[in-house]
Design goal:
The protein has about 425 residues and is an alpha+beta fold. The protein is about 35% helix and about 10% strand. The N and C termini lie far apart (about 75 Å).
Length: about 425
């Protein structure tokens, strides 16, 4: 080995040894593989990484290409803020615009305030109004704090239930990102997507010489795709158990599946299924509990979607993506003479008069638009409250028992011991 080669090898080891402690790291390995986690120990020959799943992995240093920090939006904002000229309107406006798109609304508000002092124009005022609107929406979406000791004033809950909404009943922001990622479609071109830690270039590198990437110019063609099309393509190529790419793709705003759920589906469901006397009450009737909240509450919306998407009765799903007309969400709301599966309880009047009704067609079209044929495994950390038994795995529900059905499929009459749902 030449002196130059020895020097390069020593330099590579030195770079790995510098500043590896503290914070989450991306450890790039030879062969294109990578690990993400915290470096907990290192010696002359190896590095120990505690991965996000809690497993400690020991890797020989000669197998490590690089160790880099995971850059958060907050970290990037600080760097951009340090570079921005405080006396430049354009710099401060661009900083506010970037922070707004990254959903750092408090930072965006400060930056746009500095921009307005420098130049109070229509463009800056419009962005300021958008930022204020998002801040107000975020404040409204916060769930109520835990009870404090002492007497409480009597208040009216916006969700129509005497039960105080608790944070642990709802999905987290991290879980929302996971749901959005699995449900995003190619035509979601207006959705804000944040690619972290050079995930696009890492994906291209992992695909070199494979499939479409065998053709000359494939790298640039992929880079030219819209962000939503990039994501859909990547998800189609990534192994379902490989989270190294997924966790560096953040879908920051609602894809169409959620905007349509919120505007077209939930207003109907909330009237006949999530009412206080039915599944919006204080208990999970038939193992199903929904949260009926007036206004836009992001965590509530995604929690309700996840519950509806994951609930099944006798092996039949509320939302059946492969055959929308079989969805219990539709079947249970049809008149008896038109429904194949009857609701175990008595619902009068039914939500739909027939399958031609506009409200029926809205929900049917929405279910048909979902990615399928089965629900994805979102890998959420959320634990269903109220003892609900939900199928969060994405696997098909077990078929209904043919020997001892809990209800008569023709009449909907309950058998002994069946719970009303």
């Amino acid at each position: 080995m030449s002196k130059t080669s020895v020097l390069v090898a020593m330099l590579a080891v030195l770079l790995i040894c510098v500043s590896v402690y503290g914070g989450v790291k991306i450890v790039q390995l030879k062969g294109g593989h990578e690990l993400r986690g915290e470096v907990v120990k290192q010696d002359d020959g190896s590095v120990q990484i505690k991965t996000d799943s809690g497993v400690v992995v020991t890797v020989a240093k000669d197998q490590i290409v690089s160790i880099t920090d995971v850059v958060t939006p907050e970290d990037k904002y600080l760097k951009l803020s340090a570079k921005a000229d405080p006396k430049s309107f354009e710099d401060q406006y661009k900083l506010a615009e970037w922070a707004f798109k990254a959903e750092l609304y408090k930072e965006a508000k400060k930056a746009i305030a500095r921009a307005l002092k420098l130049r109070n124009n229509v463009k800056a005022r419009a962005l300021s109004l958008q930022i204020e609107s998002r801040l107000k929406a975020a404040a409204l979406s916060k769930v109520e704090p835990k009870d404090e000791p002492g007497p409480k004033p009597r208040t009216t809950q916006p969700w129509g239930s005497s039960t105080r909404l608790k944070p642990e009943w709802l999905v987290s922001i991290e879980d929302i990102y996971k749901i959005r990622l699995e449900e995003i479609r190619e035509d979601d071109s207006a959705v804000s997507i944040n690619f972290k830690n050079d995930v696009i270039e890492r994906f291209i590198k992992s695909m070199r010489g494979r499939d479409e990437f065998e053709a000359p110019g494939a790298d640039d063609a992929f880079r030219a795709l819209s962000r939503s099309r990039k994501v859909v393509y990547m998800l189609g190529k990534i192994d379902r158990d490989d989270t190294s790419f997924r966790r560096d793709i953040e879908v920051r705003t609602d894809p169409k599946f959620m905007t349509e759920f919120r505007s077209r589906v939930w207003p109907i469901v909330s009237q006949y299924c999530a009412a206080a006397h039915c599944h919006g009450g204080d208990v999970a009737r038939g193992g199903l509990k929904l949260f009926s909240v007036s206004g836009k509450y992001e965590k509530v919306d995604y929690t309700n979607f996840l519950i509806l998407s994951s609930y099944s009765k006798n092996g039949r799903r509320l939302i059946y993506r492969d055959n929308p007309a079989k969805s219990l969400l539709l079947q249970y709301a049809l008149p008896k003479d038109q429904a194949e599966y009857q609701h175990p309880g008595k619902i009068e009047p039914k939500a739909f008069r027939n399958r031609r009704q506009a409200s029926y067609r809205k929900i049917h079209a929405w279910i048909r638009s979902l990615k399928g044929p089965i629900s994805p495994n979102y890998r959420v950390l959320w634990k269903p409250p109220f003892g609900m038994k939900l199928n969060l795995s994405g696997r098909p529900a077990l078929p209904a028992s043919e020997t001892a059905p809990s209800t008569d499929e023709k009449t909907g009459d309950k058998k002994k011991g069946d719970l009303p749902i």
